[in-house]
Amino acid sequence: MLCLCGLIGLSGVVAYYASQLPPLAQLTVPKRPPNIAILASDGSPLANRGETGGREISLGELPPALPQAFVAIEDRRFYDHWGVDLMGLARAAYRNLSHDGGLQGGSTLTQQLAKNLFLTQERTVSRKIQEAILSLWLERSYSKDQILELYLNRVYFGAGAYGVEAAAQRYFGKSARTVSLSEAALLAGLVQSPSRLAPSRNREAAQARAERVIAAMKELGFITPDMASTALSAPAEPVRPKAAGSANYAADYVMDVLDDVVGAVDSDIVVSTTLEPSLQAAAERVLVDELNARGQKFNVSQGAFVAMRPDGAVTALVGGRDYETSQFNRATSARRQPGSSFKPFVYLTALERGLRPDSVRSDSPVNINGWKPENYDRGYRGPISLRNALALSLNTVAVKLNMEVGPQAVVQTAQRLGITSPLQADPSIALGTSEVTPLELVGAYATFANGGFGVVPYVITEVKAADGKPIFNRPAPGDPNRIIDPGTDAMLNEMMHNVFVIGTAQRARMPGWPMAGKSGTTNDYKDAWFVGFTGNLVAGVWLGNDDSTPTKGVSGGNLPTDIWHNFMKIALKDQKPVALAGVAGAGQTRYANESGKPRQRAKRQKSFFERLFGL
What we know:
With 615 residues, the protein is of the alpha+beta class. It has 21 helices and 12 strands.
């Protein structure tokens, strides 16, 4: 009678808690949050985005030792029970009471999956009863292999990694498809207590747990004694996580533009990008090395770097000194005054209105309603050609040109070249007082580099579903939109090449390579820039402090130029020099030599882009 009453009472309790669940007939497994795998231009993994940290992976893709390791340590009777293992519960209760081997849990893999899918992590009797009910439903609705696959893709491994693929990438820098026996054992041992057993935090405890997994696998016959001995003699070696790497700034930029490309994402996708691993690594290295070496001396703590091809394909993007410390992306989101690196827009506007590089203006004092801008050295040179005025970055001439063509015309020129940040059409616009982002400025300079065609920076080339089904392919380039006359662009390029001849970029010259660019420094040395290009690569550097406190003398002509030069040495190594658009021959200008005197015009060679587009 007692047993009967107990059974009736238990049935009532089960029925009550079952009533608190959704109707089992309508129950479905919640969809796994999508993972976004971001690949570099060569197909190598760059980063993962999404709540899980890795893509979903099928049981058939995994080495047999990996699922076997989980079964051995977590639920050795997985293929024999029907969701709730009464024998396992009895064994765990006995060991707990006898203190034999420490506290044991009686939950099956199915119960753990039910908890992860449908319930909270609270430890109450009601939750355990509901867990058992849901486990029975899972066993009735899915095969054992399906349940095991769901479990391996949903279980938490610590460090933000959900599922074995994310965990393998996080701890070993490889796919779960290629883990070794010792690595599989370490992963299986993690799920008991991800925070305590994470190898990055407690390597000794993680290895001890992995040894227990290997012993259990040998006991169950999953592996041979020789395999166990080999695995124990070669423990898994976790790798240093890549979470702090600058590639994460680039991945964040990819995520920012992904919604415009494919809209909402509801399943795992793979995004191929234009980012080049060697250039990304080089950009990070030269920026961080320079800040580490001279940042404290010059009181400069942050920087940003953007590199792209002349058609706008972003090849490297670094949004700050250390992603782990600050995820704010200064390359795409920080608007800072560009200083004199804005002057090419003023000179382009003047050239488009009929002036020429050898046109002369007076470098003399300026007074516009009480505003008296001065040159960097506070001196004046009198009559000077526009070519040399730009190379020497004379403020007086830039301001006079700005007033001559009209500030609104300069703003329109900058906007035509891709500057989207708000610009103030006033006399000071000539000196770069309106703020822009590094990505905008480098994109605008790409128009100079490609011969005058409009540029919209892009980073995504292809998006596919996890099964390879195409979702997006970047359209083949159609007829380019010319926004600068080729002759005008050639003149400006040669004027900016003069910056490397007599101006602030002399220290950045590379033998044989024709280069053009412009430095920029703002008042009180708060912002320092250098943006420059060759015929095949455009790059820009910004240095400063997030709180806009002044640096100690950082100007566009020193640290930023050094960073740019160090990057270009790596990026252009072993490559054949490429002519600048409209420039006749490597390192030559058609309008001026080092003394600033006019040189006889050489026959203009067609640029790469003009040949490409048949112009």
